User: Fold this.
Amino acid sequence: MHYLNSLTSKLPNVGTTIFSVMSKLAADHHAINLSQGFPDFDCDPELPALVYKYMQAGHNQYAPMAGIISLREVLAEKTQSLYGANYDPEQEITITAGATQAIYTAITAIIRAGDEVIIFDPAYDSYEPAIELNGGKTIHLQLQAPAYTIDWQQVKQAINLHTRMIIINTPHNPTGTVLSAADLIKLEEVTKGTDIVIISDEVYEHIIFDGLQHQSVVRYPALAERSLIISSFGKTFHATGWKIGYCVAPQNLMAEFRKVHQFLVFCTNTPAQFALAEYLTQKSHYLELGNFYQQKRDYFIELIKDSKFEFVPAAGTYFQLLNYQHLSDEKDTDYALRLTKGFGIASIPVSVFYQQQLDNKVLRFCFAKKQETLEKAAAILTKV
Ligand SMILES: Cc1ncc(COP(=O)(O)O)c(C=O)c1O
Assistant:
């Protein structure tokens, strides 16, 4: 094949994501894959049965651009009952092709060339490329191990006339930490009187432990009015492959979001939307999700408590960080490779989530796995 040699990449520093790299390496070396964040157990069989039902019933054409209204209505009710805020399902909720599309759409709708966007490293890897492709400038502030808390004084100092957006993520991937009510009040303080828009990535909103309350920005009216809140059915229903998520925002922000959404995807999978709407009307299984994953977290950390790894139990998400400083002084990327190839267990080195590749000797392990997978993983980790 001939190719243009004048092509200049718009994202010269972006390669294949670490998740694809580690998952492939895990498969090549028959390693237990605790790297990429997805369950190795199936979703409730009722969900695919419902999709089939709606396909057979002829729901096989385009959905409305913003998503089917019954699904948006049930999400409006959920948002009201959990967080006490009213969003109009007609104008303020849009169903997307996963949270990833929602994040890209929200950034594209708001960011112009030269705008600055504050993100907190270690950060989920889709934020920065979306900012850069829109001509924005990513301002990386660092969360320090092991607490990974936000330094609000630093945020205040980073804000200037070009700051157009702040992206937060709670519960947080990759660290498993959560923001507190005090953090949200600080966010309110630093954004007061500015025209900063917030993207609040809340895809793990239901996976929170030890009786902690999820601090959605929706709970804080002064934040909600400037926020696009993004969530994902993939995380909540053990169905990451369905790639369905949603965005909730006040009408003026949502109008801009939809202008981009309609040309990026127009709409997303119709039968799956019907299935989710019916399922959510019947069951509130997401209320049990915190307990479900807390048991997995507890099982995993109990099994590895006598290993040489150090850890603070995750407060949310299905990721547990393990510090290996007593085992090796290798770089975390090298150590993750060695664990995969030599010991048969794959993880994600946390430095890849930092712009400056800050190496705290920490690896991220996904515990959204069957009991037997966690046992096999722990058997290896206790022998390393
Ligand atoms: C913090 C965070 N945001 C967004 C996403 C993307 O979610 P989706 O699979 O629905 O696109 C993920 C997935 O791992 C994530 O961890």
